[in-house]
Specification:
The structure is a single chain. The chain has 217 residues and is of the alpha/beta class. It contains 7 helices and 7 strands. It has a 7-stranded mixed sheet with strand order 3-2-1-4-5-7-6, sandwiched between helices. β2, α6 and β3 form a beta-alpha-beta unit. α1 packs parallel to α3 and α2 runs antiparallel to α6.
Length: 217
């Protein structure tokens, strides 16, 4: 009950409202994450459940306002280096109409991701055990691409240069609204940003949305 209350209070403070079935699935996901983390180090060892809920689940859910903009029906999301499913799998639980692809090269972690997809009976998630190589062109054009703590923006964006389509938006998850990286990524342009604070720690979060410049797409 304590975990449920923390999740519900955190969602409310972020201005988010999820149906009870999604809350139930997130709590089950959290339980499984704790169990598996003892075996394969998905997160730092002995991460307390309160930290999992706030700094991993609620942090991932800060993406929702950007993913649910008008006109986003039928949207798709690619999560590069998904790890324990953060943020892509958490978002997929919250948005069952969003098609989510989780890209993760490590076999033990993809085994966990597929276990969660089966356990939660998610039909909107595809797990791919592979690494996105710099300059690799993808067969599918995604509406959104994101990545959490995989690489700095000035490293990540060149890696994604051939993976994006003309309409693709890349959402960078940062601790502050710092756009200095754009100076070293001349083919990219700023679209919008969304800022908030995590509900219990008060840690700032800044989501910066960028796209390839049309002339370089």
């Amino acid at each position: 009950m304590r975990n449920r209350n923390q999740l519900l209070i955190g969602l409310a403070q972020l201005g988010l409202n999820l149906p009870a079935c999604s809350v139930d699935k997130l709590l089950l996901y959290c339980d499984e994450l704790q169990k598996w983390n003892k075996k394969i180090n998905l997160l730092a060892r002995d991460t307390p459940v309160e930290e999992i809920i706030e700094k991993h689940f609620l942090d991932s859910l800060t993406l929702l306002p950007l993913l649910t903009r008008p006109g986003s029906v039928g949207a798709s999301l690619l999560d590069v280096g998904s790890g324990a499913g953060l943020p892509g799998l958490v978002v997929a639980v919250a948005l069952p109409d969003l098609q989510v692809t989780l890209l993760e090269p490590r076999q033990k972690r993809t085994a966990f991701l597929r276990h969660i997809v089966r356990t939660l009976a998610l039909t909107n998630v595809l797990v791919r055990e592979e690494r996105l190589e710099p300059g690799e062109k993808l067969a599918t054009e995604f509406t959104f691409i994101t990545s959490r703590a995989v690489a700095a923006p000035d490293i990540l964006l060149p890696m994604l240069a051939q993976a994006v389509g003309p309409a693709t938006r890349v959402i960078l998850m940062q601790a502050a609204d710092d756009r200095q990286f754009l100076a070293s990524c001349p083919n990219w342009e700023f679209v919008e940003s969304y800022q908030c604070q995590l509900p219990f720690s008060g840690h700032p979060r800044a989501l910066t949305v960028v796209r390839k410049q049309p002339q370089s797409a």
